[in-house]
TrEMBL record:
Residues 214-259 form the Flagellar basal-body/hook protein C-terminal domain. Keywords: Bacterial flagellum, Cell projection, Cilium, Flagellum. NCBIfam families: FlgEFG_subfam, flgG_G_neg. Belongs to the flagella basal body rod proteins family. It is found in: Bacterial flagellum basal body. The basal body constitutes a major portion of the flagellar organelle and consists of four rings (L,P,S, and M) mounted on a central rod. The rod consists of about 26 subunits of FlgG in the distal portion, and FlgB, FlgC and FlgF are thought to build up the proximal portion of the rod with about 6 subunits each. It comes from the Bacteria. One of its GO terms (cellular component) is bacterial-type flagellum basal body, distal rod. This is Flagellar basal-body rod protein FlgG.
Amino acid sequence: MRALHIAATGMRAQELNVEVISNNVANLRTTGYKRQRADFQDLLYENLRRVGTATSDTGTIVPTGVQIGSGVKVAATARILTQGTIAPTGKETDVAIRGEGFFQIRLPDGNTAYTRDGSFERDANGQLTTVDGYEVLPGIVIPEDGRDLTINAQGVVQVVNGNGQIQDLGQIQLARFVNKSGLEAVGDNLFLETTSSGAAIVGNPSEPGFGDLQQKHLEASNVEAVTEISDLIAAQRAYEMNSRIIQAADEMSSTVSNLR
């Protein structure tokens, strides 16, 4: 009976949907996290009576036909890259992006990763790094005697040196992508460039097409608890309905097998 297989695909799809929702909820407090959404597509159809076929020699045709679908599949887990809430932290090495763009991070293997998480630190050499010690590009080194670190909206980094003079340390640049949803998430709040995302377009904050920076702030996750709860309830109901279809199909099969 087709209904058993069709309903089973529905239950598998909703299982994955719940997994996506649970990951969103788990990252409710993750800095710079962007929520995901499961997108579905129907599976192949069996044509029992093909639409448009002739039904007589006079040219009459089938107006609608008979097609039986074979279920559902998960086509994508799209990432929703909307702006998260900008919250003050008071920490001078915390930086939030307001608008388009990603910070550039040099990985230990030399490749460049991208992130919206601006919770940066200062290592033993004064280098501006992520919490995992990865260098923020282009490299910014804060001198030992530097104080009153400032990062303005355009990404210019300055300190007051030991002589009491303002010293420029460099310029934080941002990267953006034609298809930012095509970036590959690799964990640790990092993304990698793919052929789907296109090559990174690098520029300074506040330039056309790029957002600006806010020091002593961080971007919160864009997950909304109410939205996730309502999506979870809908997924649960869909799962229950598919399980009832399996139960009904099983009862129908049992009725047929018990015929005398």
